[in-house]
Each structure stands twice: as C-alpha cells, then as structure tokens.
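Team,

Forwarding the record for the chain on the shared tracking sheet. I've put the sequence and predicted structure together so nobody has to dig through attachments.
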Amino acid sequence: MVDISRCKKCILPVTYPDIQFDKHGICNFCLAASNEKKGPRKRSKSKLDRIIKTYKGKSSKYDVIVGLSGGKDSSYVAYYLKTEYDVKMLGMNYDIGYRSTYAIQNLETLADKLKIDLFTIRPNSSFIKKLFAHFLRKRGEFCSVCNNLGYLIGASFSWNQKLSLGFSPLMVGGWSKEYEFQHGVSVTSMDYFFENLTHELLEELIAQPFIEEKVVLGYMKLKDPRQAQIGTEEHKQLGDYAMNFIQLPDYVEWNIREIPHILSNKLFWKHPPDVHESHFDCSLFPLKEYLKFKKYGLTQETIKNSVLIRERLMSREEALERTVLEQTTEPGIFASFLHELGLSKDDINWNAEWSK
C-alpha cells in the first residue's frame, strides 16, 4: 500500500477533491457526517407500499420496469420487489458492448429464478465508441457516456411505453447516493454531459433509434436525472416526458455488505472472487477506476469504505486492508480499448477535472 496521508477516522486520502483536515487529522466529510442530525428518513417503506400499490395490476403486461445489469444493486432491486410484493417485472438491460461474463450469467439466472421478462438494448457500437473517444480527449474519462445515455434511453423507453399502455409505468433503480456518489469525482451530471457534447454529436445522439428528441430536450434542463424522481420538482419540470421512477435504496434499508450474500444464497448470483462486489458487471470498470486513481489517488473502493466506516459497518483497519482491491495498475483492457477507439494515451486529457 502506498504511504499517503489519510483521514484518521475514515481512509480518504489528501488527494481527494476539496478534502480538509482538522487539527486531529479528521476530514471535513467525517465531521459533516457526525454533525448531521439523525432524524427519520424522508422516505419510508410505507410510502413505497403505497407507490407499488398504485402500479400493481394497472397493466396486464407488467407492474414495474427494472433496469438490470447483472450487478449487485439492480439484482437486489429485482429480488426485493419480487419477494416483498410479488410484482410482474419487465427487465431492461442496457448493453454498451462491454458486459462481463459474470453479468450475462447473472442476468440469465435472475430472469429464470424470478420469472422476469428481459430485453436488452444495445446502441450502435460505432456511435458509443465515438462518444467514448470524444470524452477521453476532452475530459479524460468515458463513463459519463454510459451513465447519461442509459438514462436517456430509459426515459425514451418509458415515453414509448406510455403511448402503448396509456400511462407512464413505474421504473425502479438501485442507485444509492450514500455509497455511489463521489464528491468532486462523479461524472453522472446531465448538464456536464451535454455541456461537453459538440453540436454534431448532439445531432447524432438525437438521431439514435432508441432516443426520443423531446426527451433529450427535456433532460438537457436537468443537473442530475437521479434527482427527478416521483414527487420532486425536477420530475414536474420534465412534464409529460418524465419517467415515473424511484430509487429503491431511498425507501428501504440498503446494507451493501449483506446484499451480495443474500443474492448468492437465494439466486446463486456470482461475482469474481478477487475483487469487490461492485460494478464487475462492466469489463471497463477497472479502466475507469485506474483513470480515477491516476488522477485523484483513490478509487470508488476507498470512497465507499469510508462511508461504511462512518456508518460503523466497517472498521478502519479492514478498510485499509481492502485498499489492495484498488485498481492502481494499468488494466489489460486499456491498450485494446484505446485501439478500438483509435486513440493513444497521449490523446487522453489527463488534466481536465471530471465533476462539473
């Protein structure tokens, strides 16, 4: 492990954006978390019960749509909804061409075990790679493409289902702000994505067969589509083109240490033995994390585990031990990925900041 100055409570390093330490060596993120008033959750299981009741049985085809990748969070969403509410699910899988073998296997097992109708949308690979190359040249990262394009495809699909069913269906995701949001590093911002598109790329985006132009124009007004959930101002702002979606972790306990064990025991869900349980569903994830480490001196593993320390779900000693899971060396897929994009390492903008 590289000897680097870290917070004395969590393990965030001095290289993390906007980090500051008090005289005791405790970082501002830990201090902010300890000062928060621990009141009741803004959303609750009872509210989730009411939402599901509103949509269950509304259509003879399905009750909810769940975005499925084969990874931990989306798989648990499907498992929870099926076991808790016995809903009819339509699974939507978004394939950018880099699904891992584990993801594909988990998707097939999940669909069979939970009796889910599953379909996969795979956008034109040449367009995806053009976007990847553009963002690597301009921002030094490529994951904003998948993050935002997936939302636009999902919102467009929701709109078309509304035309077919006569109402906008309920869509449920598994993104947890507590563990997934990465201050100063996150590339999920919608306005960041559109701000960095050229006019030509925007025109090509709108022309994609799975994309609705009016949906794109509506979502261009948002900062983060994940905030445009049912009942929010952002949801109202989108009007007819809003997805009726919720993030399940906002309503129920989301113990990311227990979820992989539940899935493995109940659904024979699998993950690689030598990595953490998050995001192995994409074969490009090690590259994303390597680029992050090169730039910020840490990966999502450290950010996530620092949150777990604050929640007393992981000891600092264990978190330090798990730093060996960080992608600190160049992954094997790097060279082949750049070759596919027609880029060299010199084409990557190593200096640009990621987060808006």
